[in-house]
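Quick check before the chapter quiz. The format below is the same one you will see on the exam, so make sure you can read both the input and the output lines.
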Amino acid sequence: MNRPPQKPEKTPLFSPVAGPRQAVVQTLKEQIARLEQTRLPTQQGPIPSGCQDLDQLLPDHGFHRGTLVEWLAAESGGGAETLALAAARSFCREGGVLVVLDSARELYPPAIARLGIDLEQLIVVQALNPADNLWALDQSLRCLAVAAVLAWPARLDGHTFRRLQLAAEEGGGLGLFVRPPAAEHEPSWADVRLRVEPLPGEGSSGRRLRIHLLRSRGGADGRQIDVEIDDETNTLRLAPRLAVAKDPRRAAGA
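Here is the expected output.
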């Protein structure tokens, strides 16, 4: 009597793990990575971040559609917005519009135009209250015609953050959140989380920034890179290493 063909067993996304703590943590990281991979469109690859050197820091050398990216920065105008807009520019090149949630009413459209973003692809939303701002953010992320969304959400509880992440998946665009450093200690549903710190210029022609990769879907957390923003040409490049002055006493001893 012939037996019916057996179906191949599927590999579960999560399976019970046991053993030393470090091995368990590593196993859980691998399982989470597999789970996160299943929620991304497999037929579409990453899009460059707009900063070539930042792409080298990212495991996939760019950002994925349908995801959120957090930029943690201590002060406004320190460079995080410029980096976020550079990423939005890359996504808008493939079609779609950029939506900016400007509840603080501080947006300066000519500065966005100087970064190479067509103002005809720009939609500015100035909500009257936080509830309306959150609703507009959710709806913008869900819209298929939106390539990227830039917002400054100071506080996000886990439930709301998860809802926004699902909204980005549905819309297929890129959500760019510029948030205060205190948000680093809060739960996050962002695909990539970066901390941006200003550095002394030391006579350079542009702004120097240090970008820390706090979390990414493909791992490689904890890495950092220094970049320089040329405000005249609006280009982003790797910052040159500063020369370390020699100690004259040490030189004399040598």
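If your answer matched, good. The mean pLDDT is 80.
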